[in-house]
Amino acid sequence: MLLAGEEWAAKFRDFKHEAWRLETLPQYLVPQEAEELAQFRAGETFAEVSEDDWTAQIRRHKAEGRSMGRVHVLRRPLSDYLRFEFARYYRHSAQAGEDIRILDVTDRENPVEGFQDFWMFDRSMVVLMNYEADGTQINRVLHGGDVTPFLEAQRIAVAESIPFAEYVTA
Q1: Gap between the Cα atoms of 55 and 51, Å rounded
Q2: Residues 24, 30, 33, 35, CA torsion sign
Q3: How many CA atoms lie within 13 A of 121 on its CB side?
Q4: CA pair distance 4, 144, nearest whole angstrom
């Protein structure tokens, strides 16, 4: 099942306990980010970002006892996109209450090798995030099979990663 529009937005609005993501790519080419990414590459920095829909949603879920989190698997040196993502999104989402963690596999084996990007909702529904090699999104597909391997990938990724704030200050 392909997910887009309201059906996709509802996954983030309606989950009961947890929304969690595994990210594996060094860049994501998102049309809505193109202008800000170009500005970042040109040397512009981001002032404090006011509350946006995403951070408001994170705060609301946290206040309701629901959690949002992710682990990004990466290698150094960081791509321009990752440096942008850290400055523009991760910093603010983490401050809003999202549990963002980094699994740096620069000098080690990737313990979640073979897993593609995915979102998991309430530890029972997995949405596979399909991308071209350059980070352009192809689609999102509801996984119809057993979620056990994804639960194990989450367990390993969280156990082997460190909090975003710790990673950027190390």
Answers
A1: 6
A2: positive
A3: 15
A4: 17
State residue 107 phi and psi, 5-degree precision: -115, 30
Structure confidence at residue 51 as a pLDDT band (50, 70, 90): confident
Model pTM?
0.95
Residues 10, 13, 15, 16, CA torsion sign: negative
Report the distance separating Cα 51 and Cα 42, nearest Å: 25
Helix (H) or strand (E) holding 166: helix 164-169
Share of the chain above pLDDT 90, in %: 88
The residue length of the chain stands at 170
3-state secondary structure of 151: helix
From residue 149, alpha-carbon distances to 16, 39, 131 in Å are: 21, 39, 20
DSSP annotation of 136: B
Q: What CA–CA distance (Å, rounded) separates 99 from 96? A: 9
Q: Give the tens place of pLDDT for each residue, 123-169.
A: 999 999 999 999 999 999 999 999 999 999 999 999 999 999 999 99
For 100, residues 6+ apart whose C-beta sits below 8 A from its C-beta are 69, 70, 72, 90, 93, 94, 163, 164
